């Protein structure tokens, strides 16, 4: 799969000039650029489902992308209800969907 990452941005500059960091999502290894949000880094790898709705069991991901709706919430290093769209990835971070169904939706995603 071709990367979906924006590599040239008129305001943020060139991403490839930034340091690469490693993190995991539901135990699978991923990379990100320093300063990139969790949601953006996962989307760059083709991961669109960040959790499963508690009652409807439907996939949830980025919605507002500005920290208002909480649709993108994940667990980070054991802390629940972290909004992935406004939380930067840090090296060694452990991100969890909290739902096993999300791992199943990542079939075919190459970290
Ligand atoms: S997508 Fe709305 S809070 Fe993250």
TrEMBL record:
Keyword Magnesium included in the entry's annotation: no
Keywords in alphabetical order: Oxidoreductase
Query: Could you name the domain of life of the organism this protein comes from?
Result: Bacteria
Q: Which SUPFAM superfamilies match?
A: 2Fe-2S ferredoxin-like
Entry-linked CDD domains: fer2
Q: What is this protein called?
A: (2Fe-2S)-binding protein
Q: Which organism is it from?
A: Fodinisporobacter ferrooxydans
